[in-house]
Amino acid sequence: MKTIGLLTSGGDAPGMNAAIRSVVRTSIYNNARIIGIKQGYNGLLNGEMEEMKLSSVADIIHRGGTMLLSARCDEFKTEEGLSKALNIISVFGIDGLVILGGDGTFRGAKNLHNGGVPVVCIPCTIDNDMGYTDYTIGFMTAVETAVDAIGKIRDTSTSHGRANIVEVMGRGCGDIALYSGIAGGAESIIVPEVDFDIDEVCKRVIQGKNRGKLHHIIALAEGVGNAYEVAEEIEEKTGTETRVTILGHIQRGGSPTVFDRIMASKMGNKAVELLLEGKSGRALGTKCNKIIDVDLDEALNTEREFDIELYNIGKILSI
Ligand code: ADP
Questions:
Q1: Does residue 41's CB lie within 6 angstroms of at least one atom of ligand 1?
Q2: Sign for the pseudo-dihedral over CA of 268, 274, 278, 283
Q3: 144 and 124 housed in the same domain
Q4: What's the gap in Å between 146 CA and the centre of ligand 1?
Q5: Most buried residue, 164, 224, 287, 308, by CB count within 10 Å?
Q6: For residue 205, is pLDDT > 80?
Q7: What is the average pLDDT score of the chain?
Q8: Is the CB of 105 under 6 A from ligand 1?
Q9: Surface-to-core class of residue 279, CB atoms within 10 Å of its CB (0-12 exposed, 13-18 middle, 19+ buried)
Q10: Which residues, 6 or more positions from 301, have their beta carbon under 8 angstroms from its beta carbon?
Q11: Could you report the per-residue pLDDT of 239-282, keeping only the tens digit for each?
């Protein structure tokens, strides 16, 4: 393995830059060339790539986003797109790839692996929605952003005696709502993994009010449905003014937390080591704080297990 290619694809996540830095520096340390490919699979198909040096990744560990840029690429999903990619990889003399992204990106990587190109994937998505790993890079930074927002919203909700739904990201996964709800002291947490009873939420709003509480924060995962409809129902049933704040893409940006930087540094390093050992079709992850690598098929087919214990603790702590 003399030349390694590196790309970031799909939704960006804070910590991608820290992973890029780790991949580049570990490659150069091991006397391998490292080629940065711009805009995910798009840049691969267009041959948008250049060799990276130690200095290419100076001053990026603390930056959100991805210096290699990200994009979606439908052409890459087609057979023609794949063979074009395989051809370009061979023309540019790339012996293996490190690929950063979420499950869609991993599916694309699997096709490259099947086409004979060694690939190792690093899970980068704020959603934490990949079942084979406890953790995906970017999650904790997104949670910090959501917790910060919940604190600010609580201030103004208290002043006005309002309830406030804070809608957070996560696609079908409720982890951002669960973690930010608990850490931010939300009174209710609503996630797609657990059926919710609007009457129970309303009861909590009324009970809180009766105890003299001036605010009621509801952390709601985007996968649950329409936050405005939930707010309307709460307002109707409790008589408490209920506002909605949708945090949106603010959760995807910002300087990565220490935890994300460390995870990204570890996984970037391990990805290069695996390629240099001749491994392919592997996905990195963590189990019980240890870095693991599993077959890409396993990574793509393991269903996510929701942390119901943590959810139940959240319910107890917010009575
Ligand atoms: P994420 O990696 O964040 O889940 P996407 O699902 O948008 O993001 O996937 C990113 C890119 O990965 C897509 O634009 C496409 O190029 C590629 N990709 C996604 N799904 C597949 C698939 N089933 N087969 C091949 N490539 C795919």
A1: yes
A2: negative
A3: no
A4: 26
A5: 164
A6: yes
A7: 97
A8: yes
A9: middle
A10: none
A11: 999 999 999 999 999 999 999 999 999 999 999 999 999 999 99
Q: What is the pLDDT of residues 211-244, one digit of tens each?
A: 999 999 999 999 999 999 999 999 999 999 999 9
Closest of 241, 266, 79, 236 to residue 87, by C-alpha: 79
Q: Which helix (H) or strand (E) holds 284?
A: strand 282-287
Helices 308-317, 175-183: axis angle to 10 degrees equals 30
Give the single-character DSSP code of 164: E
Phi and psi at residue 147, to the nearest 5° = -65, -40
Average pLDDT of the segment spanning 96-100:
98
Q: Are residues 116 and 146 in the same domain?
A: no
By residue range, what is the domain housing residue 74?
3-138+256-301
> How many independent structural domains does the chain possess?
2
Residue in 168, 170, 208 with CA at minimum distance from that of residue 187: 208
